[in-house]
# Entry
Amino acid sequence: MSDFLTWASNRQSRIEGVLATLLPDPSHAPGRLYQAMRYAVLDGGKRVRPLLAYAAGELTRAEPACVDAVAAAVEFIHAYSLVHDDMPAMDNDVIRRGKPTVHVEFDEATALLVGDALQSLAFKTLSQPDLVKLPAMQVSMLNMLAKASGSAGMAGGQAIDLASVGKPIELTELEFMHILKTGALIRASVNLGAMCGEAHDPNTMKHLDHYAKCIGLAFQVVDDVLDAEAPTAMLGKTAGKDAANNKPTYVSLLGLARSRELAEELRADALSALSGFGPEAERLRQLADYVILRKH
# Structure
């Protein structure tokens, strides 16, 4: 595991540098917006989505510059979603990644514009010229990120989440919500990272997509468990907020013990999806452990 932690730390440092380079310079106008964009993105988070993109790219022997762009694009989308989710119109949270949320540190109007600008920057990053050899492949990648981010993915899942507050829902409905809200962007991270490389045969992509679907759901199950158990200082965001807001979660439907079991089952399923691969998939296997065993 120490080898994995070194690899993860190196990739986290790498993506931090890529993000810092791509984000606009706040010394130029509109400086306050650029400052807020950098505040929202830099110096925080586990960078799970970029790590998944890098690991999938290693499996398909991808060009590092291509995976850098993919990793940055998905992280920009993720950061924008957090900024908007934290706003008073949605989750109304005041802490994110251990510091005041963007609308608290700046103001609501700036936070709204930060999310808009980061979403645009994600697609600008993924549409840069000559990212991959085949233009049709790049169009497919843009389409995938758009679908994962929009009403058929993350935004749609958030809409279902908001509409479900205080209402009893079935486990299948909760799973569908999180396949969209959390899982879609995680699946895109894996698939886009792999698409930067050489092997795009349907069988490889099928197994990688199944792995990513399991990891996406497991990530949310663990999030729900941690929200119920871990303190705010460890989480870097307000603990216990889901229960306080009467939001449906895996813990509220299944209880803590069964939720932990479900996370382990999803982990086993994800690892099974990689059984046909050799050592080139080791980082993806280790990331499955990292996602399920994390403490924050």
Q: What stands out?
A: The radius of gyration is 18 Å.
